[in-house]
Specification:
Elements lengths: L1 H18 L8 H5 L6 H21 L1 H7 L7 H21 L4 H20 L6 H13 L3 H16 L6 H22 L5 H28 L7 H6 L4 H6 L3 H24 L14 H14 L16 H10 L4
Helix pairs in contact: 1-15, 3-4, 3-5, 3-7, 5-6, 5-7, 5-8, 5-9, 6-7, 6-8, 8-9, 9-10, 10-13, 10-14, 13-14
Length: 326
Amino acid sequence: MLAAEKMTFMLFNCSKCLKGRLYNVVNSSDIRKFSKSSKTKESSRQSNFQYCVDLVRKYDYENYLCARLYPPSLMPIAFAIQAFNVETAQIGDIHFASDIKTGLIRMQFWKDSIEKIYEGSPPHTPTALALSQCIRKKKLSKDLFFKIIDARYSKLNADFYKNIKDIEDYSEDTKASILYLFLESEGITDKQVHHVASHIGKSQGVVTLLRGLPYNSSKGRIYLPRESLLKFKISGEDVMRGRKQKEICDIVFEVASVAKQHLETARSMKKDVPSTVLPLFLNSVICDKYLKQLQKVDFNVFHPSLQKKNGLLPMQLLLQKIGKKY
């Protein structure tokens, strides 16, 4: 019993550490590894990366926690890529209803920015400059960045999913592409590992959609697949007003089952993943916890318990990393 209490105490302190000291700027020595330069340039570079860290911490806190547990050499790259992801994702959130034209212009700005980064003349914005440094050193694929942008661009023009496969495809182009960039940064080209990343990315994308349903439906955005809505004879108005709860839960069950299947497939392939790569898939912990909670409330995606923050998440992620799981 005493040993168990000591372990709990140690883990609690680790969790506190993750919430405090580890949330500082990415270690400057990790950033300096990218290149040698003058103190002024180095200070500017660190400022750009710190901006990315702060942006991800503010708007994508869970992925921020995951990135803090990545290999030190990957952290600056991960935060730059995640900051790019945050900025492009926010375009859809901000401009969905009121100003789609401006949203499309902003998305084109990012497409032009990626092109300029690869030409060696990045725009003078913190995220673009940090991303440029990573791309130059790691030779990251331009096509993956374009895939993310094009998927988000298309979603601005067509604000619905036709079917579950449409959700999976979008998740592949966005969430999985980010994982592919991480793997590329680490020099991982194994097809089986990329296959695992694809399944985790799809699971993450589907779970993100489910978690966002209460907020998006309150804004008039119905992201449940249209085929499923027709199958169960549910209108967007029904979802927004909370009518036909049983039928909505049936649709959520269908969609959640797809996320669960992708997660289980990814975990069944764990033997093919090098131990050094396992931390890159820590987001699967978040997916798994949510899907289990969703099942407990009979797939009522609007249940208040699903809107609560998980205060134990830092410790849960740490335990998964220590146990070499995902």
